[in-house]
Amino acid sequence: MLWHLIGGVHNDALMLGLMLAGTVIALEALQDTRWWPFTAGVVLIALGAQVKLPALVALAVVGTALARRLGGGLARFTLSGVTMVVVAVLVSVVTSLAGQAGFGWLQALGTPSKVPSWMAPSNWPGFLTGAVFGAESGQAMISAGRVAGLVLVLCGIAVVLTRQLRGGISEVMALGLMMSVIVVLGPVVQPWYLLWAVLPLAAAGVWRTKIAAVVTVFALLVPPLAGDFAGRVAELVVGYGAGLAVVACAFLVLRHVLGRVSVRRRPGGELPAADDVVAGGAGVPGAVARAAGRPAGAARVRVRARVLPCCRR
């Protein structure tokens, strides 16, 4: 994130910040049916979509969560979806008029895809066809591949939302999966686009080792500023070193914090008292810990607290 979003000064940082903050606020407010904070969260997501359109999938996640909160069903799902669309349109109109920029930005939505991206899997058949049969055939295949990719993206989003509506996956997991589908099957892929999916998937707590490996490879594949480091190799080396230092410090701090959360058994296998076990700031009764049936030889009792109560199942 520091390497590309901050070092490369990409507006994806604004999109992700607004989208994720709005998602957390909306989902937290939905648990207690607090409509003003919920509305504020939805507006933040819509503002993130003004930076980059993929943030709209967070509105789909929040809308589906709203439908489940109201009792589920296709009718409530449709009503919630229409509500999210109305909010997105209103925010777009207000921001466009307030900024006196008009709606000319609509014509620029397709600009990023004008140059074929070699990282996008949907373009690979076109590149292969162009190498064998010529540029004209290759461009036609690229266009066909993008259409196929768009269809698959829509199908993937529909599947994920269906599973979320039925309670099969959490809201954060749904957001990460839909962002993954958009990145993999979209017409344009840049290394920092992976962060669209990585951040929510990391919050969902899945595939962390694999995600870390993929992010590391793509973070180093293309340096910030499109790799324009001619005559400035020293800056690139310093950047790599600083990034490694930040990751190492974060690892040590997290290990220290998590080590303090872990509660070791006392001599003789006796569990600690209620006041000795703390999770997320709330004491855990000793009777509950004993009822868990921990074996006498267990080395420690680990206490974990989820970040989002709405993700509990």
TrEMBL record:
A Pfam family of this chain: MptA_B_family
Organism: Lentzea guizhouensis
Keywords: Glycosyltransferase, Membrane, Transferase, Transmembrane, Transmembrane helix
Membrane topology type: Multi-pass membrane protein
Classification lineage: Bacteria, Bacillati, Actinomycetota, Actinomycetes, Pseudonocardiales
GO MF entries: glycosyltransferase activity
Subcellular location as annotated: Membrane
Protein family (similarity comment): Belongs to the MptA/B family.
Annotated Gene Ontology cellular component terms: membrane
Segments passing through the bilayer: 12-30, 36-62, 74-98, 147-165, 177-199, 211-231, 237-258
Top-level lineage group: Bacteria
The protein's name in its UniProt record: DUF2029 domain-containing protein
